[in-house]
Amino acid sequence: MLAAPDPANLIVGILAAGGELIPSAISVLEAEYGPSDGRSEVVAFSFTDYYRQEMGPDLLRVWVSFAALQPAARLAEIKLATNRLEDRFRTGDGKRRVNLDPGFLTLYNLVLATTKNYAHRIYLRDGIFAELTLVYAQGRFQPQAWTYADYQSPAALSFLSGARERYIAKRKTRG
Question: Which helix (H) or strand (E) holds 124?
Answer without folding.
Answer: strand 121-125
